[in-house]
Write a structure and sequence with these properties.
The two termini are about 35 Å apart. The chain has 19 helices and no strands. It has 2 domains: about 100 residues, no CATH class; about 325 residues, Na+/H+ antiporter like fold (Up-down Bundle), CATH 1.20.1530.20. The longest helix is centred in the first third of the chain and has 37 residues. The protein has about 475 residues and is mainly α. It is globular.
């Protein structure tokens, strides 16, 4: 009886805390709403600092509230960004969101470092067949399927209605390639919160991080190959292929060097990586872009080298965890603030159709690939759940399309943003549900990025029959 009474008191205390957080969030938003209506706006350093503080506070409170209904923390961060951003309550305006872009650069560097450190060589060897088959299937069947899907809805998309047949074919091919983009940031955000371990976790981490490299290569090839379809007299340029090879080889080489330097620093100095990580996230990322190397691929390689070729992996993961605890809240909140709500209102029927069919195609192709690779039952049934999310990489690829083909590029980018908005909200929820359902949540000793706040206990693991 005493145990039941203690459990009841604990449950009551938890609800009191949730109500207190809701009250605190309401008060904060109310005060900011009043202040925004009666005080002049400014674009000085104070407005940027207050914007960061608001996103941190609103993101943390919103994530706690949404956790009650089982939603992941990063969904709370994104929702907080949407609500406080320039399209809803206007607490953080467009200029401030743009000024906060360097925070995103730092976050992506930490994501890549942490993701590389999570890619342990022994796990990759164990799942090499599954990873290879899944990558090949999604790079072929998924792309072909989404090309066909795009054709079915093209007449309802404003920017494609006046395109000739060859240009429309080029747009469909580019959309098919864009559709296999995943979200390393969302995947690692869920892993950071839940600390999972198991077959689904291993497959998702390896596939999503590896797909980052694959999509960069495929999109560059696609941009080169479709140019003759768009431009009269256009031809395939070998120079573009040379640039691609330079980018990949250079990124891997620099990543290896950075990884070895980080390992040496950790061995000599210890785990004090705050200043080096910030310097890498801000300065080095911009330098890599100037040299036309891929920062994500470079830092991914660096983390992989530290974890698998030295003994400093745990120190790196701990340092990334410390630096990233606040950065990730601002990163995902800024992503929410960036979502163009008016654009989503205009394009939502087409975007919803494309996002929904993409999820179905992802599920179907994954099931086929899992059967061929003879994956574990858990991966066969739930492996697709981590492949729905899309975020910064997808938008980045759409920007490349917009720059390469101005005639339809802006319309293409707008549709991509609208679709990403849906996948960014739905994908993390699906992945968290699968990890909780399978009982993998909470089984890992450590992860590479921010430790979660106390969360709900995951459901009991499924039996073999339920799987």
């Amino acid at each position: 009886m005493s145990n039941a009474a203690a459990a009841h008191r604990k449950g009551s205390a938890a609800w009191v805390m949730h109500i207190a957080r809701l009250f605190a969030l309401t008060i904060v938003l109310g005060l900011l709403f009043i202040a925004s209506r009666f005080t002049p706006t400014s674009q000085d350093a104070f407005s940027v600092i207050s914007g960061i503080g608001l996103m941190l506070l609103a993101g943390m409170l919103m994530s706690d509230l949404l956790e009650v209904i089982g939603l992941p923390h990063l969904t709370g961060y994104i929702v907080a960004g949407i609500i406080t951003g320039p399209h809803v309550l206007h607490f953080v305006d467009h200029e401030t969101v743009e000024i906060l872009q360097p925070v995103n650069t730092l976050a992506l560097a930490l994501i890549a470092l942490g993701g590389g450190a999570e890619l342990r060589l022994d796990l990759l060897k164990q799942g090499a067949r599954s990873l290879g088959v899944a990558t090949g299937m999604h790079a072929t069947l998924s792309v072909v399927a989404m090309i066909g899907v795009f054709y079915t809805v093209a007449r309802f998309i404003p920017f494609t209605q006046d395109l000739n047949a060859s240009t429309l074919a080029a747009v469909a091919i580019l959309w098919g390639v864009l559709s296999i983009c995943r979200s390393p940031s969302a995947t690692l955000g869920i892993l950071a919160q839940l600390r999972p371990a198991g077959p689904l976790t291993n497959f998702s981490l390896a596939f999503v991080m590896a797909s980052d490299v694959v999509i960069v290569v495929m999109m560059t090839l696609a941009l080169t190959l479709v140019r003759p379809l768009v431009e009269a007299g256009g031809s395939v340029s070998l120079h573009d292929l040379e640039v691609l090879g330079h980018e990949i080889i250079g990124s891997l080489s620099l990543g290896t060097t950075i990884g070895l330097l980080l390992a040496a620093y950790l061995r000599l100095i210890g785990g004090r990586l705050l200043i080096p990580l910030i310097a890498m996230g801000f300065g080095l990322s911009e330098g890599l872009r100037y040299l036309r190397f891929d920062p994500v691929l470079t830092f991914l390689c660096a983390g992989f080298v530290v974890e698998n070729m030295t003994k400093q992996g745990p120190k790196l993961m701990h340092s990334v965890e410390e630096v990233g605890s606040a950065v990730y809240v601002v990163f995902f909140a800024t992503a929410g603030a960036h979502l163009d709500v008016p654009l989503l209102k205009t394009l939502w029927p087409v975007a919803l159709y494309l996002a929904g069919v993409r999820a179905i195609v992802t599920w179907g192709v994954h099931r086929i690939g899992s059967r061929i690779a003879n994956d574990e039952p858990i991966v066969k049934k739930w492996g697709w759940s981590s492949l729905v999310s899309q975020a910064g990489l997808t938008i980045g690829m759409s920007v490349l399309v917009a720059r390469a083909f101005p005639s339809f590029g802006e319309g293409f980018r707008s549709l991509a943003i609208a679709t990403v908005a849906i996948n960014e909200l739905v994908g993390p929820v699906l992945f968290k549900f699968a990890l909780d359902r399978l009982g993998e949540s909470g089984k890992a000793a450590a992860v590479s990025i921010p430790p979660p706040r106390p969360s709900q206990a995951p459901p009991a693991p499924l039996s073999a029959d339920e799987i």
